[in-house]
Amino acid sequence: MKDSFFEKVYQVVAEIPFGRITTYGAIAEYLGSKGASRMVGWALNSTNKFPGTLPAHRVVNRKGLLTGKRHFGGTRVMADLLQSEGIEIKGDQILNFKEKLWLPEDIQ
DNA sequence: AATTTGACGCGGT
DNA sequence: CACCGCGCCAAAT
Q1: Which residue of A15, A19, A69, A105 shows the fewest CB atoms closer than 10 Å?
Q2: In chain B, which nucleotides are within 7 Å of a protein Cβ?
Q3: Range of the domain at A58
Q4: In angstroms, rounded to a whole number, what is the distance separating the alpha carbons of residues A60 and A68?
Q5: Å: A94 CA to C3 C1'
Q6: C1'-nearest nucleotide to the CA of A72
Q7: Mind listing the pLDDT tens digit for each residue in A29-76?
Q8: Into how many domains does chain A fold?
Q9: Which nucleotides of chain C have an atom under 7 angstroms from any protein CB?
Q10: Residue A5, CA: closest nucleotide via C1'?
């Protein structure tokens, strides 16, 4: 374990329950660096190098918008995955976002 | 060692 | 609705 920011992000993302989602900001805050949500997104960028390792599609921005879908090789992949998990999506917006939201502090 | 970058957040114009 | 600037901070170059 490197305990690096990335590692922590990986851990948190890996704990996101099926059918739930969380936000960059929530993760950043949980990691003790509130406001450093950019780091989270960046960390997830590295995540792309480990396909299938993390459910990065369950991480969206604070509005529930799939802002990172473009990093999934296609613009519909992310939404598709989420919908497969029972999450309704309209455009880039997750419906019932608030209800599906999961926070690191609620970790299993 | 310094600068750039980034899948964000938020208020302002 | 579009665009802008600021804050935030670690990793990559």
Answers
A1: A105
A2: 5-10
A3: 5-106
A4: 7
A5: 25
A6: B7
A7: 999 888 889 999 999 998 888 777 899 999 999 999 999 998 998 888
A8: 1
A9: 7-12
A10: C10
User: Within 7 Å: CB of A57 and strand B?
Assistant: yes
Note the pLDDT tens digit of each residue in A11-34: 999 999 999 999 999 999 999 888
Decide: CB of A103 under 7 A of nucleic strand B: no
CATH number assigned to the domain comprising residue A63: 1.10.10.10
Alpha helices in chain A (DSSP H): 5-14, 24-30, 37-47, 77-84, 97-100
**A13 burial type by CB count under 10 A (0-12 exposed, 13-18 middle, 19+ buried):** buried
